[in-house]
Amino acid sequence: MTVPQALGRHTDRVASHTPAPMTRRTAAVAVGVILTSALGWHTDVARAHPGHPGHSTDPTPSATAPAATPEYAHGWKPLKPIAGGPRQEHSVATIGKDVYVVGGIQPDGAGGVTTVRDVEVYDSRRNTWRRAAPLPVAMNHPNLAAVGGKLYVLGGLSGGASWQALRDSYVYNPTTNTWTPLPPMPEGSERGSAAVGVHGTRIYLAGGMRTLTPGPGGLQDTVATVSAYDVTTGRWSSLPDLPEARDHVGGAVIGHTLYVLGGRDRGQINVRDTVYALDLRGGRWVERAPMPTPRGGIAAAAVNGVIYTFGGEGNVVDGVNTVFDQTEAYDTRRDRWQRLAPMPVPRHGTAATAVGDTIYIPGGGNRGGGAPMDVNDAYRPSTQ
Asked: Domain holding 129: CATH number?
């Protein structure tokens, strides 16, 4: 694989709980970032907890959608749109050649959005969609993983005016097309929008959020909690907290290491470029080479030891808040980043999963906040 613009190696250091100084680029991205609650609603700055670093009340412009005509090249390919319509703040996972799109939000027909139970399946061989049994409860930002040919949903967010964390957990069997309840997340650890990774029979969740209140000044309650669920024993366990709280973050396990990339901390204005790594054999969190572009609301997937990150929210261009189009790849062996061909349709609030050496990215929003789309794209790194 040939990738352009390799960025320098970063020396490992033990991660601390003291936030690193904000770079010029981080500061520029942070200015004017806003939260929109639903399709076309007027927006304002998201509210961090009182006294939390990075809290800002500066006025910001309204979000607008990118107007550029999509150009598919350099590994990007358009696919059949999501059959059930626009979707955002969902999660995706792979079983065999099928990509499962689970939960999320959809337009409600009245200018807003609603949380859904819907599960749709994209057949990557035939470029077709079908429906699967819906979630037992409606969820957005579900924590989703595939292990042993089954899907596991371990908590998420749901609700009306304010989305709250759910402890509810389920396993889906594609053979019987049924969902079965699992032991709920331990009380106090419930959250959605966590970084998710799988190692053996354990699913790891890092960070996330307990509350997301859409709309002007809405509360976003980010956590640093790290936990694991063993699909064989049905038991939950705790791991060392992240050095800093994160949500809307990328995650993957490569070898014996859990990686947590980018994200944000209690509001879109607080985008981060950090990369944290935890040795699952008993190590402690260390900080690796930072992302070239600080971003929250990203999608991430791993292929051949490289973690690919896509899109995100909070990009300010000419005073207007837009989404990111960046595709950036982190080589876990070399501790280096590369900038790759941008997304043809920039989005945030989407998710990514790999089938072989191809990454699938269905849905997401093309404006800050809630702006679901039915776009379904594939990215194949080897064609770069």
From this structure: 2.120.10.80
In sequence order, what are the residues at sequence separation of 6 or more whose Cβ sits closer than 8 angstroms to the Cβ of residue 52? 265, 266
Instruction: Residue 34: give the domain boundaries.
Output: 13-383
Cross-strand bridge partners of residue 140: 157
320 burial (CB, 10 Å; 0-12 / 13-18 / 19+) is: middle
Return all residues near 261 (Cβ < 8 A) that are at least 6 apart: 195, 249, 250, 251, 252, 274, 275, 291, 298, 300, 307, 309, 330
Q: How far apart are CA 285 and CA 277, in angstroms?
A: 5
pTM exceeds 0.90 for this model: no
Is residue 277 a part of any domain in this protein?
yes
Q: Is residue 111 helix, strand or coil?
A: coil
- At position 341, the amino acid (one-letter code) is A
**pLDDT, tens digit, 9 for 90 and up, residues 153-176:** 999 999 988 999 999 999 999 999
Using the structure block, give the residue that is written with the tokens 């079965």: 180
- CA gap 289, 329 in Å, rounded: 11
Structure tokens, 118? 């819907």
pLDDT at 217 (0 to 100): 77
Whether 6 is covered by a domain: the verdict is: no
| Cβ count within 10 A of residue 79 | 17
Residue 5, domain member (yes or no): no
Return the closest-CA partner of residue 358 out of 328, 375, 344, 378.
378
| Low pLDDT (below 70) residues in the chain | 1-68, 216, 319-321, 383-384
| Rounded Cα–Cα distance for residues 223 and 221 (Å) | 7
Q: Are the beta carbons of 209 and 192 closer than 8 angstroms?
A: yes
Report the distance separating Cα 173 and Cα 176, nearest Å. 6
List the Cα angle 268/269/270 in 5-degree steps: 90
Question: How many domains is the chain partitioned into structurally?
Answer: 1
Secondary structure of the chain: what % helix, strand, coil (to 5)? 5, 40, 55
pLDDT one-digit tens code per residue, 89-142: 999 999 999 999 999 999 999 999 999 999 999 999 999 999 999 999 999 999
Would you list the DSSP string of 268-314? TT-B---EEEEETTT---EE-PPPSS--BS-EEEEETTEEEEE--EE
Q: Is residue 3 part of a domain?
A: no
Provide the 10 A C-beta neighbour count for residue 66. 17
Q: Which tokens sit at 60?
A: 């910001």
